Amino acid sequence: MTTAAVSLGLKLSATCHMDDLLRAVRVVAPHVGKERDGGGVERIRVVMDTELMRLALLATCEMSSVVVLLPLLEADEALDADGRPVVEADLDLTAPAAKVLPAVFERTNAETARLEVDLGRRTLQVTDVSGLLEGRTVRVHASSEWTGDEGERVCAAQAVMSVCQQPVAASGSVMLPATALRSWSASARAMGALPLRVTTEGRALVAAGALEDLAGLTVLGQTMIMGAGDAPLGAPAYDGAGVAALMDLLLEGEPTGGEPARDREHSLVTEISSWLRGQHSSPHGDGIDGDEGPQGGDAA
User: Fold this and answer.
1) Residue 8: what pLDDT?
2) CB atoms within 10 A of CB 187
3) Where does the source fall among the domains of life (predicted)?
4) Spatial distance between the Cα atoms of 29 and 289, rounded to a whole number of angstroms
C-alpha cells in the first residue's frame, strides 16, 4: 500500500511483549548496512501483520542478513476509506530511530507495548500499556517510502531463506570474518547465545527461538564464513515454520540491488576455502606442484 493510497488518519494498532520488541531491535540493529552500498541496506524494515498476528524486523549488510519475528498479542481492526480491512503496515526505520526504543524503555520494566503505525504520516508510536494507566510513549518517523527509483532493493528475507535451503555440513572447521563477528557478537548479547548451522556453501545460518511454531521471539539470520565442510548431512539448514514467514516477507521482483559486491566477496571466500581444503587433502600438503592458491588472494 503506497502513501498516496492511504487516508491521513488511517492507523494500524497492536500489542506485543515489550521485552520481545526491545530484544528484536538489539538483534537487528548491528546488521544495518551503509547507504553507499545501495539496495536500501541502511534501513531496518518493519512489517506489522495483524492478520498473521506477527511483527517482523529485517536488516541486511554486505556480510549478513537477519529477520526477527515476534507474535502480536492483540490487534485493533483498521478500515480504509472504502471500508476494506487493512491488515499490514510496511515501513522502514533508520538504525538510530530504532535504537530510541530500547534507550527509552529498557529500564522501565514495561511488560506490554502498544504499537501504532500511522500509515498516512508514516510514523511508529510505541506506548507502555503494562498498567492501568499508559506509561511512556515514543514516536519515531519512518524513512521515506522506497519507490524503486534508487534501484532494486536487497531482500533480507530472500537472503536468509536461500541459506535455509542449503545443505548442512557434516563436519568442518570454519572461521567467521571479523566484520561479521562484531555484528553477531552484539546480536548474541541480546539473544543470549549464537547458535550456528554451517552449510556446505560457505554460509552459516543463525536460528534461535520458537523455530517450530513461531509462538515466541524467533531469529533467523545468515552470515558469510570461511572453511565450510564439504560432506552434507542430507538435510536443509532449516525447514520449519519460519520458512513460510520468510516467503510472506519477500519483496516483489528479483532483489538484485547491492548484491554484486557481496557476490564477489562470497566467490572469493569460497575460492579460498576450497583451496585451503585442497591443501589439507593434498599428499604433499605444502601447496607445491603448481598450486598457486586462489586468484585475488592478495585482496583478501
Assistant:
1) 67
2) 25
3) Bacteria
4) 47
Give backbone dihedrals phi and psi of 172, rounded to 5 degrees, phi first.
150, 155
Q: What distance in Å separates the CA atoms of residue 28 and residue 19, rounded to the nearest whole number?
A: 14
CA-to-CA dists, residue 162 to 157, 182, 201, angstroms: 9, 23, 11
The pLDDT of residue 300 is above 60:
no
CB 117 within 8 A of CB 3: no
Task: State the number of CA atoms in the 13 A half-sphere of 51 facing the CB.
Answer: 7
All structural domains of the chain, each given as residue ranges with its CATH number in brackets, are 3-141 (3.10.150.10), 156-281 (no CATH)
When pLDDT is averaged across residues 6-13 and rounded to a whole number, the result is: 80
Q: Shortest CA distance to 69 belongs to which of 24, 30, 15?
A: 24
Helix then strand then coil, % of the chain, to nearest 5: 30, 30, 45
Backbone phi, psi, residue 75, to 5°:
-145, 145
Contact 78, 6 (CB under 8 A): no
List CB contacts of 296: < 8 A, sequence separation 6 or more. 268, 271
Q: Are 60 and 154 a contacting pair, CB within 8 Å?
A: yes
> Degrees (nearest 5) of the Cα angle 196, 249, 184?
30
Cβ(120)–Cβ(8) below 8 Å: yes
Distance of alpha carbon 70 from alpha carbon 220, whole angstroms:
12
**Within the chain, what is the greatest distance between any pair of CA atoms?**
77
Residue 298: is its pLDDT beyond 50?
no
Q: Which residue has the cell 491521513?
A: 8
Length of the chain: 300
Predicted TM-score of the model (pTM): 0.82
